[in-house]
Each structure stands twice: as C-alpha cells, then as structure tokens.
C-alpha cells in the first residue's frame, strides 16, 4: 500500500469513527492501529490534523480518534520523531483541559495518551503537565488524575518528581471545595503513596537509590491531617471510601512518632466506615495497611485497640462470601490478612478470642472463626506451634455442629491441620473419624427440600465429595500421615454406619498399602493382636468379599474392595497371596467391563464362591478356618438391614 492509499484509507476510517455502533468503532480502532504500526508518524499526523480541523466533532467521535492515537503511541513510540511526540503531548493536553467541566470519556481518552507517552518520555510529559499544575491555582480534575495514573504506570520515572508535586499540591487541598476535586486529590495521594512504597521496596532497580521514606514524611503527614480531620467526615460515600483508602497507604510513609500519636484515632475512624458504607473491601484493605505499618514499627498503643478491632474483624470475616462477587472475596482475604498481622503481635489473645467464638453456636460466627483458624494454621505456623493441643481440643465443638456449612469449614481446617502436624498428636484420630463419617453421608433427601438461591449452600453430596477428596489428599500428599492412617483406616470398613465410605476408604488403603509394600516397610505387616479396635483378618475378608458380591452398591465399592483384599493378602493369611494374585485380577477386569445391569449376578456369585473355596483350601489352617466360620456367623448381626448381603454370608 503506497502513501496515497494509506492516506485515503486513514481518512475514510477517521470519518467512520463517528459510527454509533460500538463494534464498528472497535473495528475502526483495530484497522487504524494496523496502519499506524506500518507508518506511525504519518497516521498520527492525520489523526492530529483531523481533530484540529474539526473542533466541533461530537465527543464520541473525538474519543475514538484519541483512543487510536493512544494505541499507536503505546506500541510505536520508539519510532516517533521528537517533534511528533511534542505535538501529540500538546494536543492531548489541550483536549484534556479544553472544557473546564469534567467530561469523563473525552478527557480520560486524552489523559491516557499522556500516560502512554509518559511511560517512555516522562520528562517531556512532566514539562507539559506541571505547566498546568501551578502553585495557588486549583488544577483541572484530569491534570491531577493524570499525575496519579502516571505514578502507577511509571513508578521509577515519577517518584523523583513527587516531592515537588506534593509541595505544590498541599496548599491546593485547602482550596478544594467540591467533592469531585477532594476525591481526585485523595485518589492521587493514595497512588503517590503506593508508588513511593514500591520505589522504596525496589531500591536496587531504582534510578536514585538514595531516596528515603523521610523524604516524603512531612508532606504526607500534612496531607493526612487535612484528609483525616476534614474530608473523612464527608457525607459522600465515594469520597469517604477514597479518603479511607488513602489514609491506609499514607500511614506507611508517616514518621513513626506521628503514626503512634494518631493510631488511637485512625483505627476507630477506619472501623467506623464499615457501618457507613456497603463496599467493605477498600475499608479492610486500608485497615490492613494501617495495622501493617503499626506492627512494623512496633506500636505500643495498638494493644489498646485490640479488643474493638477483633470484634469488628470477626464481624467481617463472618459475613457471607459470594465467590461470583469478587469484592466479597477480596474483603474476606484482606480481613484474614489483618488477623495474621495481629497474630504475630498478640498470638495468645487472638487465638483465645477465636477459640472462644468457636463456642458460639451461631452458624455465621462459627464459619468466621473456622476461616480465621484455618488461615492462621497455614500462614502463621510458627506462632501456632505451641497452641496445637488447645486447638485440637477446641475443634471438637464445631465438629458436632449439624450445619453442613460449618462441617465444610471444619473439613478445611482439618486439611490445614494435617499439613502442619496436628493429626499425629493425641486427639488427631477424631479428626480422621470426622472425615470418614462425612465420606459416608447419604444423598440429601430432596422431596422436602425447597429450591434455594443461597450461594453458600452445602448439600450432603457436595460435603461427601469434599471429604472423599480430602481423604485422598491426606493419603497422597502428607507423607507423615501414612502411619496415622495405616492400618487404622481398616477399622471403618466394618461398622455399618460407614458403609457408604467404603470406596474412598479402600482407595486410600490401597495407596498406603502399595507404598509400604513396595518400600518393604516393616509397618506394612499388621499385628492384629497389638492394634486396638481393628477387625480381625477373618472379619476383614468377610466384609470385603460381601462388598464384592454387590459390586455396584455403596458408590461402586466392589472393585476397590477386591483390590484392597489383594493388597492385604499376607496380612489376612500368608498363604492367600498366591491364590489372590492369580484369581482377583480377572475378576476386576470383568467388573471393569460390566455395569449393574449387564453383570450376570448368578455367575458372579459362583466366581466369588470359587474364590472363597480356593482361598480356604490354600490356607490349610483348621483353627483359622474355624474362626472364619464363627466370625461369619457372628457377623450376620451386622447385616440386619441388608438382607441380600446376609444371605451371602449364610
């Protein structure tokens, strides 16, 4: 495409940018960008000329052209001549400030061009912007907004200018009478503070490594004084929130003595915002920053605020979390961070508070306390080390709660505890039992269930699936639990109340047994006389064979029962190993190819009876076989509710 063609196409696209259809506008921007990548200087010149020759274009038309300029500048600035960059800066600055009224779409599009240029040519941009940011004159809203956005997108370029900018800005704060100007100044101070903190945290990459926090402390405190004492009391919710957010960021830059002096006022003021605003995430984020700054400097007055802080934070952490609504998730996470910070300074008081709240039977309160407990176990493991037995004792109360929502939270806590060495301690077996009990849950009884729109609803099926997964994860990812779970999980295979958990139990025992057997660990061999509460080898064999007789019952417990029987062979009786290695795999293959409908039940029963006959013949131990017969008879009583299985035992 030659120059004439490019000019004609560009001109046609500039005219088409007036289309009201957003898809057409998007296509215009993409096409202009394609041309702009080929000849950036020429296309940008035509965009500028078009805007200058048509000063009365409607706002939406101007916006599309300004957005196109931003896109081309963003990806081709290195190829542009210095005069072209200067002229683009002048155009964008004039477009941004031509109207004294705020016209967001138009002025934001122009501001974005300045930010795009400023990412690479900060000195050129600052020369233009600061000419419109003069002492004693209230600047245009978007001049302040552009400075704020530049400090975000080009931290290393902007921070060296911020001391001078803050010096000019401070007297302007007193001149701001309208809420929108107060808002933009507060937002800018928040962005400036965050940029300074990022700069200080990465001094090794910074152009001027001599920059220090106290370079900005005086100006930041003076700005804090106005925002906190005057603007935070505004009736405008959006302004209050932004001031609160700025206060959180500014605390990190205040001199320690000033922050310590103000903390008894700052914390209650931030906490009080929860009652005045429905958007809580920004408040929690600000509170977290205040606490972080306080903890970092070793505040002594934070202690006096702890009780009221814990009450406010517990209310927040107990609020419903809707995972389809990101702000509620973000708020929950920020509140948990607050608890972590306080746990480092006040571990005893915080843990006691959370455990006491666990005693409250209120569902939401318990869920909140459990969320905090799980977070602290994961994030503050060294702090929690001395409190393990206390936590193990305290978790028993919510374990007895009938609410599935609470049970779900308990499972999450148990999973965290497993990874940090709690389950090996005395009382840990109760937590394993809790998981198994909920693996055995039956389906939610639907006929009397009303439709619910509760996003946090936890059905029996969902809780059971979660516990199945948890048991699998404990088995496969927490190596030190192997000796807690093996062979103790065998106990749960025989009581009828755990029958619906047979499948996940067998799968876990297969993993554990295989690993111990292949590693030739002595603990693979089970001493049934020493292990308390374990069923005898004969009872285990009966249970697993009966399961295999009805392979598709209890969530398909047949195949895992047979596989476990094969793994357990030498533990059942040393002479069963050879028979089972030969006979069980074909049975498993048959089940794999069958369904409940296609399996010939009569032939299947015959195959299992043949397996039993060969097993008893191979054992050649009259005493063992007699005990097997006696236990089969005694075991009949456990099948009172399962007539088919009872018949098989006979």
From TrEMBL:
Every MROH2B-like HEAT-repeats domain range: 254-646
Domain MROH2B-like N-terminal HEAT-repeats, first and last residues per copy: 33-251
GO cellular component: cytoplasm
Keywords, comma-separated and alphabetical: Repeat
InterPro entries per UniProt: ARM-like, ARM-type_fold, HEAT_MROH2B-like, Maestro_heat-like_prot, MROH2B-like_N_HEAT
Cross-referenced PANTHER family: MAESTRO HEAT-LIKE REPEAT FAMILY MEMBER 1, MAESTRO-RELATED HEAT DOMAIN-CONTAINING
Protein name: HRT7A
